[in-house]
Amino acid sequence: MELHLPKKYEALRALDRGQAKPPRQARVIIQFGNQTKPNITEYIVSPLPSPKSHIVKTFKGEKPVQFDSRPITAAEYGHIVDILVKISNKAHKLLFETTGGFSFSNCSDRCLTFSDIAPRGLGPGERRSWIMLQKFVEGYFIHPIGFEVLINHQDLDPEKWTVEKVWYSSRYFDSVEELVEKYESGKVEKVKLPDHGDDDFFSTYIPRGYSNTPTNIHGPKLVEPQGPRYYVDHNFVEYAGWSFAYRVRSSAGLQVFDLRFNGERIAYEISLQEAIAFYAGDTPAAMQTKYIDAGWAMGTSTYELAPGIDCPEIATFVDLYHYFDTDKPVRYRNALCIFEMTTAMPLRRHFNSNFQGGYNFFAGLENTVLVMRTTSTVYNYDYIWDFLFYLNGVVEVKVSASGYIHATFFTPNGLHYGTKVYNYVLGNLHTHLIHYKVDLDIAGRENSFETMDLKFVNFTNPWSPKDFVVQSKLHRTEHKTERSAAFRFGKKFPRYLHFYNPSEKNKWGHQKGYRIQFNSHAHSVLPRGWREENGISWSRYPLAVTRHKDSETTSSSIYAQNDPWEPVVSFEDYIRNNEDIVNQDLVAWVTVGFLHVPHSEDIPNTATPGNAVGFFLRPFNFFDEDPSLASRSTVIVRPGQDGKPKVQRWTPEVIGHCVTDKPFFYNGTYAGV
């Protein structure tokens, strides 16, 4: 269950005109398995909190949800464990000898576990999963043992599930029995992993190696000398001119609604839509891995945040509630945090030299920013989701990647698809792509979209006619239809992406606008139209601009993972009709991401520096001047008549003993020594 959003015009009538709020509704998804024709049905239930009615929710084009596309549940996993017990019992000796004493069942401290791979098959209507066994130690994701098995679990009777293939010692077998027979008779090369011991601690966080940092001294910490400067009321937040509402939907995660600056709406919705990680490899599990994370309930994987590590100790921590594959709501404590921080970088500054060893003035404004953060730990990977709100009307939307790499058993051929990161362990290359919906409403709902680039011009120099001037000139392209505003990966991408209101101008006669600025190294993960690529057709475009439709609320679905071949939500359908986007309510769909070729420094975990991507929303003639001028944290220093610096400030100088006991000091002179 999760909140079902009202139609946009209904919400705006209440937000902007004070009319009645639309009824609160729930989206409820039920699996009906125990019947002749099993199905998965979505309902819209209303009104909350005391529902009296429900209707069946349909998808664009009335596409039915195939039962085989359903996300996997705890009940199904229970049966998968049962068949793995049977498989591992048959291959007990092989597994025991390969791992140096590990087994899948009847084990104490030497247990095996598993990771399952998706999509579950090679075409629609299938439900068969490659599963690889791993040592169950801390960080088991990077402890593959080289045993992978393909289980067909399509039948609703788990007793009828079958093993279709087994992979061991770089060879394929048609059954566990065949593998065991050939193992016992010496017809297959035996794999022998190093004995369990210190060797297995490489995946832990336990410190090792030399450090000259004193261990009895804490590092720097963030403080709020007089308490927080932001306001949180349930899911509503205000900070320095900004206001917005947020939610974390169980399917796909963090969303911001009704984003305003000084009361003026900039965006109706900015929301995470999907995250994928498509892999390559030599083992069957590796070459099959194409993770589409909304299908794993990415939004419910919002686990507790640690003060001082995930968020500053001073942050406001918020509990989240999810209802997914459960009999009652589950509370995730401290799963979202909100805090203001200094970036230790000025927002603006200037030193105005007099070029004689002194200065005319110095002025600067510290850069503080409000951060809203949550995480998704989808099995091995940890995504850190951030929204950052700056004093100058800029919003940054960012994802940082951490957690364990998805690793498979090392084979020499595997080096074409990754890096050896430990004995018998290959870190497989993969591409992360993240999709966002950005429903901008710039000075109203009627917006247009243009791109801006530079072209060289060559003309006679007016003050030296025998010479020529070559310089850059602005080249603007107005995009009038959805197709022309869908930019493909691999094609030249414009440098300025400008959304503006054609009928609203700032003081200087420019149309009020915002632009999207990318921080991304993304590229497409499969050729267009190749099998699973149909389920992620949004990934063809770093940017696509469409007309807003209430029937086009999301670009993906929880069913895409297990049926990417015939997806129930196809983003390509949103731009296929090529509608007019001039002076319309526009939605920008943004894809960011990066290629990750694992390396030895990803052990034990991928680190966040260099692994953060996202985009900025930046005002472009929306204001008459920089709106951060409203901040009273500005400091100006001018030389006084007596030669001493005169400091002008609009906030108290005393910060607080926990920051510094030294008063503000500025000299401004420079001289030879």
Describe the 3D structure.
This protein has 3 domains: 2-57, Roll (Nuclear Transport Factor 2, Chain: A), CATH 3.10.450; 74-185, Nuclear Transport Factor 2, Chain: A, CATH 3.10.450; 230-325 and 335-630, Copper amine oxidase, catalytic domain (Beta-galactosidase, Chain A, domain 5). It contains 6 helices and 34 strands. The mean pLDDT is 95. The chain is globular. The chain starts with a strand and ends in a 24-residue tail after the last strand. It is mainly beta. Strand 18 (359-378) and strand 19 form a beta hairpin. The strands form 5 sheets. Strands 16, 17, 18, 19, 20, 25, 26, 28, 29, 32, 33 and 34 form a 12-stranded antiparallel β-sheet that branches. Strands 10, 11, 12, 13, 14, 15, 24, 27, 30 and 31 form a 10-stranded antiparallel β-sheet that branches. The chain has helices spanning 8-17, 74-90, 92-99, 176-184, 284-288, 572-576; strands at residues 2-4, 25-32, 39-46, 53-56, 112-116, 128-135, 144-152, 162-168, 171-173, 231-233, 236-239, 242-249, 253-261, 264-279, 290-292, 316-322, 330-353, 359-378, 381-390, 395-403, 407-409, 418-422, 425-428, 430-440, 448-460, 468-478, 486-487, 496-505, 511-519, 543-547, 586-596, 612-620, 635-639, 645-649. 8% of the residues lie in helices and 40% in strands.
